[in-house]
Amino acid sequence: MKEKKKDIRALNKKELQDFFVSIGDKSFRGTQVYEWLWSKGAHSFEAMTNISKSTRQLLEDNFVINHIEVDEMQRSKDGTIKNAVKLHDGFTVESVLIPTYSRTTACVSSQVGCSLDCKFCATAKLKRMRNLNPDEIYDQVVAIDQESRLYNNRPLSNIVFMGMGEPLMNYNNVLKSIEKITSPEGLGMSPKRITVSTSGVPKMIKKLADDEVKFNLALSLHSAIDEVRTSIMPFNKNFPLEDLKDSLVHWYFKTKKRVTYEYLIWKDINDRQKDIDALVEFCKIIPCKVNIIEYNPIDDGIFQQANSQITDRYQDALEKNGITVTVRRSRGKDIDAACGQLANKSSK
Ligand code: SAH
Questions:
Q1: How does strand 130-131 pair with strand 111-112?
Q2: Nearest alpha carbon to residue 120 among 242, 269, 275, 325
Q3: 108 lines ligand 1 (CB under 6 A)
Q4: pTM of the predicted model, to two decimals?
């Protein structure tokens, strides 16, 4: 059987140069092709006019050039934009542009669907179909950056990996996409403006630390009590809080960077005093910040946002213990672009 052709844009510059050396050509040829793909935006090998015909044929035989396409763009009353992004094989993922007074944030997807099973998340209802390639992640960012310039007259300032999928289950491709986003040949964005959000895969958090990444880490905690967390995020059974704590200690030891804990508060789930106490204790492990997010219902009626007095109690307890806490309101609800709502209706 003929081997499937590879997505050439999934290779970084070094890998492309190595490919040419491996076939007895010069590393420089890799640089030339890389420029065609990334600076000149070539959509075909034929367009690469300074590359010999036989080399172009060889590329044609081994690779494809994939690009994403923004299939549908929706704008919310509050300025939030949601893109339904069509991939070369027909799958769709979503990405979001969130403009605020001081920032313009892109929220990007890392997988088609998700393999985790968070009970409150719309994406979790979709099966994980595949990982996104680095170029498919990068292209989402470029598309949003262009929209931001067009509609808001300003470039993107921040990126969060909080769209569809679990970024740490697509580790290599996510890191490669960030390498491109931060490189001067890509968008030249500072890693300090990029946040990878994880449901909490301890082994991969440790790997991030060992790889000395420079971007920020957010952890979707939602409960600091194992049995509660397992009931809403069943994979917690395999990665219990004790392991998560270990990985966070390792992260802080290596990177000296504090972690943001994302936290949703639901009625009758994590609205008790003991839930608050457990979170306060968890926050003492390493320097951190808590981000209380508003819950966006996903229409199954099981989860309901706790009332604002409970949020106040959480906030007071954290602040009394010297822990920074922010309470975030949702954006783009009218176009299903808010946190946890990304599930593109067409693929359901
Ligand atoms: N898998 C990663 C990134 C995607 S989810 C993670 O879990 O962090 C991005 C954020 O949206 C997470 O904090 C997640 O807990 C939150 N989220 C999921 N469903 C939500 C919902 N219905 N309302 C509000 N936030 C939600």
A1: antiparallel
A2: 269
A3: no
A4: 0.94
Q: Does domain 69-335 have CATH number 3.20.20.70?
A: yes
Q: Whose CA is nearest to atom 16 of ligand 1?
A: 340
CB 307 within 8 A of CB 278: no
For the chain, the domains span: 6-64, 69-335
The helix (H) or strand (E) run that includes residue 60 is helix 53-62
- pLDDT digits 0-9 by tens, 237-273: 999 999 999 999 999 999 999 999 999 999 999 999 9
CATH number, domain 6-64? 1.10.150.530
Residue ID of nearest Cα to ligand 1 atom 17? 340
55 class by beta-carbon count within 10 Å (0-12 exposed, 13-18 middle, 19+ buried): middle
Ligand 1 mean position to 339 CA, how many Å?
Answer: 6
Q: How far apart are CA 258 and CA 253, in angstroms?
A: 10
Determine the distance separating the centroid of ligand 1 and the alpha carbon of 123, expressed in angstroms: 9
Q: How far is the CA of 176 from the centre of ligand 1 (A)?
A: 23
